[in-house]
Amino acid sequence: MAGNHFVASIDIGTEKIALLVAEREDDDHLRIIGHNVCPSKGVRRGSIFSIDSLSREISKLIKKTEESFGISLALFRVNISDTHLTCIDGKGKVPVNEFVSSEDLDAVLESAMAISTPTNKEKLHIIKKKFTINETVVVDDPIDMEAQVLESKVHIITVSSSSVRNVENCLKQSDLEVDKIVLNSVAKSQALLTQEDKNSGVCLLDIGAGVTSYSVFKEEGIIQSGIIAMGGDEVTQSIAYAFDTSLEEAKRLKESYGVAKTLPQSDDKFIDFTQANSKEERQLSSLDLSAVIEESYREIFEELKNELKHRNLDSIIKSGFVLSGGGSEIGSIEELIRDCFSKRVKLGKIQRSRISGLEAILTDYRYTGSIGLLLHEGDLNKAKFIVSNGNKGVMGKLKNAIVGNF
């Protein structure tokens, strides 16, 4: 696949790998022309622990997709999920000679980005936020405006360098090139959130198999991202432990009969299942199953609640939660989150103003991250080379362009 008319993405998860290819049309609209998904290997809690295992699965997925859709793939956008991520807002301030120029804009952004990072971390995203003129007027684009002083804020997301290298080396081992690496929750926000959602204060909550990630937005843009090292796998393990089943059987019970919260009108039913060391069929109560599932989900949400409260974010989320990920596909999950947080909740839906394709792909939660990667955009011509390496003051190339105003 050659030229600038195509975009390809790989969403690497703990449980699955999802691949999409889209054609960029004349109006910059994206049309999905290729897709595939396969089980993931070599990933635990969202992090790569075996490059060999993962790269083999990716290579097989690429080959199958190329053969199925008659395309050649080499350059990919890929996601990352790092439990060691940190977020910080950088602030810049420069004097202006009467009217704001593009040089003033570059200078104030460079000033805002001039924050050193530890030697074991690197800046994954630098997200442009609002500008302030003369300390009072807040604007999105200050070019040609009269001013004496221009200020800016940027949101900086850092991740461990080893996590980035693992992603790069995995694709390299599969003879692929990395176009860009995007934080999982940032990518999904591009696919699921409207500007109205962001302006009113919302938390995008992605419940994956290995981890639960979140990003909080308000009118000025993204303000915090984080990862809880618990996900759907914990729920499966709780079922397996409670009823002495294999993980495979526990997952079947969760997906076929599970609900996150037992509603008052729920009837008890008996469910056939097999225990780990017995072929004899047994029965369990559907209410007992839902009680185990609910308790496990509550542990995840309690961790999230504590983190949001610790970061003073709970009062910002006025518009509530938008859900994504396989863990949000279970019944009654919205009711449980309302009960835990006393906030509005809705399941995320792909925003289709910029992308089209088969309905089966656009409504399949497994492809949400890949769609977000396809839609992800950075400000043109804004890549900076100003990243310091710890306390050494060494200037390094910032691999990611400034992301547009989220």
Provide a descriptive summary of the structure in words.
There is one protein chain. The protein is α/β, with parallel strands linked by helices and 406 residues long. Among the domains are: 86-160 and 381-396, Dna Ligase, domain 1, CATH 3.30.1490; 194-350, ATPase, nucleotide binding domain (Nucleotidyltransferase, domain 5), CATH 3.30.420. The chain is built from eleven helices and 21 strands. The protein has helices spanning 51-69, 102-113, 161-173, 184-192, 195-200, 232-243, 247-257, 286-310, 333-341, 359-362, 368-375, and strands at 6-12, 16-24, 30-39, 43-44, 47-48, 75-80, 86-99, 121-133, 137-139, 146-160, 177-183, 202-207, 212-218, 221-228, 270-274, 281-285, 321-324, 345-347, 355-356, 387-388, 395-396. Strand 20 (387-388) and strand 21 (395-396) form a beta hairpin. Helix 6 packs across helix 7 and helix 6 (232-243) runs antiparallel to helix 8. The longest helix has 25 residues, at 286-310. Mean pLDDT is 89; it is low at 379-406.
